[in-house]
Design a protein that fits this description.
The structure is a single chain. The chain is an alpha/beta fold and about 350 residues long. It contains 13 helices and 12 strands. Strand 8, helix 12 (about 255-265) and strand 9 form a beta-alpha-beta unit. Helix 6 crosses helix 13 (about 300-315), helix 9 runs parallel beside helix 10 and helix 11 packs across helix 12. The relative contact order is 0.12. Pfam families: LacI, Peripla_BP_3. Keywords: DNA-binding, Transcription, Transcription regulation. InterPro entries: HTH_LacI (IPR000843), LacI/GalR-like_sensor (IPR046335), Lambda_DNA-bd_dom_sf (IPR010982), Peripla_BP_I (IPR028082).
Amino acid sequence: MSASGRPTIKTVAARAGVGRTTVSRVLNGSPLVSDAARAAVEEAISELNYVPNSVARSLVTRRADSIALVIPESESRLGSEPYFSAVIRGVSTALAGTQLQLLLVLVRDQRELDQFTRFLAARRVDGVLLVSVHRDDPLPGVLEELGLPTVLAGRRTADETLAHAHSDNLGGAVQAVRHLLERGRTTIATITGPLDMDVGHSRLRGWRDALRQGGLEPDETLAEPGDFTEEGGRSAIRALLDRHPALDAVFAASDVMAAGALAELRRRGRRVPEDVAVVGFDDSIIARHTDPPLTTVRQPVEELGCSITELLLREMAGPGSAPRQVVLPTSLVVREST
């Protein structure tokens, strides 16, 4: 370890059981390393969360004229959820007047995290935009260690230390559930987002707050976790109907999950909105093409992409000059599902 407590090449070499020259060759992508030695070094780097000093130095002293948009999700989610394409459009719009190149990077597991760290050393970017942030994701910590300008779309917790922008998830959820209460619904379930994400917790909290404001104590058995996928919505509404056959409304934390819930409600013979009213979140293109069209909370996702990019450009131009947080407003869009 160094005096600061951070692992060094010597530490990595000792953990891997190889010489420091071998570690350097692996870091520099040299072919003059056996597969076994390379695997041992990469495993040691992962275990120690080692970041080469050369990476930090190169990021400070050189410009690459490129930024990375990092999405820690699978290709299937990237392709199936309108949220991601809208963010990408917003980022591209904000970069249109610059000379910066945009690199799209998927980081789905520890191996790809290690590859991305080495990519920073080999290719160098001037800043990073990180989308779909999970609470225990190690990547924000790696980026902080590098001292690289970084902006998040979303946040890990309410105490987020990195610059970030997010929609008013709490307020939007309150609007959605208040609308259902105003429609006379009394047994209002919710399909949450992943609860290792602040967006999932914030929308769940909005469901609870709106019920309490309406004089109802939240019944936690009316909350079922989802994963922002259509199948997740189907699975969640099945569980909710099994527990509460008489439920008369559902607030789903995304349009994609709401679409899954609508399909399962139809399969179960429940009419929407006569028997069960449904509200989603996003106001994506999906909301306008469900049957019936979906009442939903509109969040300005393209504007979110623009906002995180503008924050990053300001941070790259003058470290410490950009706001640490931007909150974008949401609004309710009423359609036939309620």
